[in-house]
Amino acid sequence: MSSTLCLLLLLLILSLLTVTISSPGSRSILRAVNSGTAADLRDYAVDLNVTNFDAVLRDTPATYAVVEFFAHWCPACRNYKPHYEKVARLFNGPEAVYPGMILMTRVDCASKINTKLCDNFSVSHYPMLFWGPPSKFVSAGSEPKQEKSDIQVIDNGRTADRLLSWINKKMGSSFGLDDQKFENDHLPSNASDPGQIARAVYDVEEATSTAFEIILEHKMIKSETRASLVKFLQLMVAHHPSRRCRKGSAEVLVNFDDVYPLDAWSDNRHEDQDGKGALGNIQICGRDVPRGYWMFCRGSKNDTRGFSCGLWVLLHSLSVRIEDGESSFAFSTICDFVHNFFICEECRQHFYDMCSRVSSPFNKSRDFALWLWSAHNKVNERLIKEEASLGTGDPKFPKMIWPPRQLCSSCYRSQKNNDIDWDEDAVFNFLTNYYGKTLVSLNKDKGLNGNDGTNAALEDLVPSTNAIVVPLGAALAIAVASCAFGALACYWRSQQKSRKPRRTWS
User: Fold this and answer.
1) Which of 147, 196, 229, 491 has the most other CB atoms within 10 Å of its CB?
2) 344 is catalytic
3) Which residue spans traverse the membrane (predicted)?
4) Do 317 and 442 share a domain, yes or no?
5) What are 309-362's pLDDT values in tens digits?
6) Residues 303 and 356 in one domain
């Protein structure tokens, strides 16, 4: 009887499976998978919903935001998506041509969790586009009766050309759909505007994340480097200019002994320590809007500035935040970190040679901050000569002795050719303000450096916007297939029980 029931169950499940796969929706899914078209689509616009809407828009470095309200079942919305993505390519993602200017986002009003959010913006048709400063969307999205005068409806953006034309008129710009990365004249000069450093807080986060990824990918945590990394993480937990990075560094420390215990190397298990366990899953500066570009540290060519610039800003920012009693610890920690984890061999060795020439420990944070400033200028002096002879420098951002007169005229007592008589008190005041107060001013304006509970929502902004969502039909097919497998197993077991025992050879 059990065998008959199993067979009946199997036939029923197989018939259901046939109906499911032969349905129009399932056939379209299969066609998409087989043709590969789904994999060829690339999304640049950031998907928002009621859970991350405020956090993402509050924390974006962009000056303006575009929010598209749509419904996934709407044919016009599906046809409009390629147009919207063509414009989003210019402003969003790691290959953004004009990063930090406009955040392109979308909200699916057909999702029930977004019903109230869409009602608050009085969405009357699909697709419907809004334009405004990101912070204005935050308050407007939670208060339906609030005046939305700073938010405008984009009434002429039905094609990529029309949308970009509307944006150009609004911003007085001349962006083009065919513009390519770095082929523009919109790079801000950071030499004469002290306020530009405020945008570097995003670059410091980017550099911190990149450094952590390099360490894990290259399996650089070993018995002899373990303590060096722990000390650097401790320094970042206490003094990193980004609250998100402070929290992420603390999370790494909490999990560090579980992934890299002290006795991990005693039994030759260190070869298996690839960093892809618990630490590999930690975002050291939190989950954020996909960025992958540089703002303050953006060069005019693909292979200039970027990570090295962001790392220098991080080191300077740490140097001006420590107390006197931490100066010796900070010095040894940064020197060891660069020596053990910076991959550029020539740069690493040059920096460590300068560290080795320090004969006595630092007792004042001022002394350490000035030493790091002096070391940075020595690196620049070396690179100025090399880049001039090889033609490898950035034409718009040539290496220079820092700070230039435009930023700190009081730092110069006198200058004769390349011989500068520095006023170190003025230099230290400049470093403290530039890499301290001014660097975090943008975060303070956005409320990201507070210590109360109101900022908790900003620490984990948005999961990956490229997360895979399994369609309902596909999920049903998987479930049915699992049941079918269970029925087959049931049938096989019943057949095995009915068989006579086989003789075995003794």
Assistant:
1) 229
2) no
3) 468-492
4) yes
5) 999 999 999 999 999 999 999 999 999 999 999 888 888 899 999 999 999 889
6) yes
